[in-house]
Amino acid sequence: MIRRPFGTLPDGRAVTRATISGHGLTASVITLGASLQDLRLDGVAHPLVLGFPELRPYLGEGRYCGAVVGRYANRIAHGRAVLDGQALDLDRNQDGRNMLHGGSDGSGTRNWVLAEQTEASVALADLLPDGHMGFPGAMPVRAIYQILPGPTLQLTITATTDRTSLCNFAQHSYFNLDGSDTVADHRLTVPATSYLPVDADLIPLGPPAPVGGTPLDFRRPVRLGDRLEGPPIDHNLCLAPERRRLPRRAAVLQAGAVRMQLHSTEPGLQIYPANHFSPGAPGLAGRPYGRHTGVALESQLWPDAPNRPDYPSARILQGQIYRQVTLLRFQHPAKVDA
């Protein structure tokens, strides 16, 4: 169990870095955004996620990198929704048109409180005030990273509200399992049979469409390099019609000797292979991250669900407990089948 300073925000608040380890896995989390800053597996020389060794990039090019984003992850069209007859006017931080990841002060950009830490777990907490970014209800939220046998990194996000509101969090790490300059040689499998077509602003156009015959078909292992130069991928794959009580397999990502299984309670998985990255600050391996250096696998509700009654609901009632569980289970290199 290690806790160290990680820098100071422009307003003088300190950001802290906590490191936990167990079962051959080591994870470091910073309080800014409750972000997974580094993830290491014994026997592997490189980090498994994209991150930065200092705070500054997280305030610019590294925004959302490894963060817990919300209170509504992904997009809400035009920053507007109706909740129990009340029209919500939400922060429009995506080009002044739509809400993205809970707004300009969403949870992924806030400095959480480091609440508890043991050798193998760390808990962070935040309080989103009533009216924050246009959402009703004060919302306490807690994120617990815990290392379990497997080795597995489990993230449990819980939240509640004192007024009916909307709630949808997601963990926004970019994965790179082989340490290469791109994820071209990664193979991705996702069991989803449908996806959400989107417009130029990445707002869903309507009901789910079959993945068959599209670049969004990952039902069998797909080498990402075969899809990266085609139509840009930044889409929600539809795993289920509603949230689940227990996590189920949502994706398998493999590169070289490292294999990661992602299990989640969430009905959607946003796939985004870092289309916008361009070389800037050095990352964890000492070199800048370019286009397609990592792939984000964001367990979530479906985007724009508050405006789509046929999508899984993001509505949370007064006193109701929201609970999301995501598991990242790694196979040790020595145990991966050839």
Defining traits:
mainly beta; Beta-galactosidase, Chain A, domain 5; 27 strands; 39% strand; Aldose 1-epimerase; aldose 1-epimerase activity; Gal_mutarotase_sf_dom; Aldose_1-epimerase; isomerase
Q: Care to describe what's here?
A:
With 338 residues, the protein is an all-beta fold. It has one domain (2-335): Beta-galactosidase, Chain A, domain 5, CATH 2.70.98. It has no helices and 27 strands. It has strands at 2-8, 14-22, 25-30, 35-41, 67-69, 75-76, 80-83, 86-89, 99-100, 113-117, 121-128, 139-148, 152-159, 165-166, 170-172, 174-175, 187-189, 194-195, 209-210, 222-223, 235-238, 248-255, 258-264, 268-272, 295-300, 315-316, 322-331. The protein has a 9-stranded antiparallel beta sheet with strand order 10-11-12-13-27-23-22-17-20, with no helix packed on it. A hairpin with a 2-residue loop joins strand 2 and strand 3. The protein is globular, with a radius of gyration of 19 Å. The two termini are 35 Å apart. The mean pLDDT is 96. It comes from Paracoccus aminovorans. Belongs to the aldose epimerase family. One of its GO terms (molecular function) is carbohydrate binding. Keywords: Carbohydrate metabolism, Isomerase. It is an enzyme of class 5 (isomerase).
